[in-house]
Amino acid sequence: MEYKVAKYFQIEQDIIEAIKSGRLKPGDKVDSESVLKKKYNVSTITVRKAFTDLINEGYLTGIQGLGTFVAKKQMIRGLTSLSFSDELLQQGYEIDMHVDKIELITNTQIAEKLTIDPQQPIVCVHRIRLANGEPIAYQSSFVDSRLLPLEKAQTVHETKSFYKTLAQVNVTPVWVNENYSVREVGDAPIAKLMNIRKNTATFFVKRLTFDQRDEIIEYAETYFNKDWYSVTVNIKV
Fold first, then answer.
1. What is the model's pLDDT at position 78?
2. How many other CB atoms are found less than 10 A from the CB of residue 148?
3. Taking a C-beta distance cutoff of 8 angstroms, is the pair 172, 211 a contact?
């Protein structure tokens, strides 16, 4: 017996096939409702049903006033590694890092997080993280300048890794404590580097990094582009 395939399902399967074959790539705009209505000889309700299903399944994303686009593939953080870079490499992404600035500061609040004297100079390394050439995060790491001198911090330009740079001064992270929240990027230069609009909501992660003696060696703040990033946590009873 031959079964008739629902029109909305046919639209969905055609779009999915186009995405999987590479004819539609992340960020590409898909045909409008009016185009698909004519192509499949269906109603607006049918096309919207297909769009809604594909958006819910993560294939598409709708932007009011602009249209419907192929969703970008998210980096799924499994929290299985201290290194975000290692997790991306395991998922097959090409990674890179561009240093925004490296500076020496004093900051009472950050010093308190690092459990050091408020007047102790702190080295700050600010950088953009990229995956497959796309900016996905803006990270700022803060460390006691006695552990990582400013001159030594500059080698992050060559190592392309903050933790590899720490390893050069025999500082090794063993475990971390992370706090996740949602925060808008109010800093226009940071938003520009992330290729998003100012005041866009992002995943905001605060990290405390500890060494083998359970002493804090780093405090870090990261804005993750929510269109590129998600977290999966496994809980076993």
1. 47
2. 25
3. yes
- Token pair recorded at residue 20: 């999987």
pLDDT higher than threshold 90 for residue 192: yes
Q: Which percentage of the chain shows pLDDT scores above 70?
A: 85
B/e letters for 65-94, b = 16+ CB within 10 Å, e = fewer, are eeebbbbbeebebeeeeeebbebbeeeebe
Q: Over 60: is that where the pLDDT of 122 sits? A: yes
DSSP three-state, residue 88? helix
pLDDT one-digit tens code per residue, 210-237: 998 999 999 999 999 887 766 666 655 5
Residue 160: CB partners within 8 Å, gap ≥ 6?
96, 97
Per-residue pLDDT at 79: 44
End-to-end CA distance of the chain: 47
Burial (CB count within 10 angstroms: exposed 0-12, middle 13-18, buried 19+), residue 2 = exposed
Q: Where are any strands of DSSP class E within 48-171?
A: 60-63, 67-70, 75-77, 95-105, 122-131, 134-144
pTM above 0.85, yes or no: no
Which of helix, strand or coil describes residue 38?
helix
